[in-house]
Specification:
Oligomer: single chain
CATH superfamily of the largest domain: Pseudouridine synthase
CATH topology of the largest domain: Pseudouridine synthase
Distance between the termini: 37 Å
Structural class: alpha+beta
Amino acid sequence: MAAPPGLLAVIHEDADLLVINKPADLVCHPSKDGELSSLIGRVRLHLGHQASGGEATPHLVNRLDRETSGVILVAKTDAAARELRRLWATRRVLKEYLAIVHGHVRDERGTIEAALGRDAASRVAIRDCVRSDGAASRTDFEVRERFTRPGSAGQAGPFTLLRVLPHTGRKHQIRIHLAHIGHPIVGDKIYGGDEDAYLALVERRLTAGQRERLILPHQALHAEAVRFEWRGRAWEFSCAPEPWFAEFAAI
């Protein structure tokens, strides 16, 4: 039986591995709103439709925030999951992101090294911050394009499209690091300057005014590509960002 149409945007699939372009505004882990409301739920439906002689057991190798789109790997076997997770844990995977940030980033390229840990002062329980006693974190970036777009009052707003390469995998690392240097990601509801926007999103009370200030419907962060060596060969998976992202950045 075929899987329901539009269930997943599959980049690659074989006996051991499923690679997906996760849409923005989809959580990775199971939620209370049914199988279609999470990536893993959709994966189970997809694999369940293919399975013969029993349900497949998928393992998420990497994860993305709810509003981050892009490449996610799902191992179909325990062995593949162990091997691939070991590559991620030992930092043998090159991860490449696209981000649209506020302002024109001055330097053509740079490195952000700032330790990260829990933000005890925030009302948002999942929010982290730069703190001296946190976990060491490093993010490289380079400018792809600087541009402007009309603002809500007819004013032009400066933005920068960045290529971002995180060398560590801390929670919200790219988002915190870019906000730390004064260039938060467009549409970021936690680190964009008004953390109530995140609470409003979760509580389903986001106002029209908040949406207008956020500019884009989701945070403009896209996991564009991953590259690694596995089982004797080089692997590379990539995918384009969603139309709302691509149109805003004119890519």
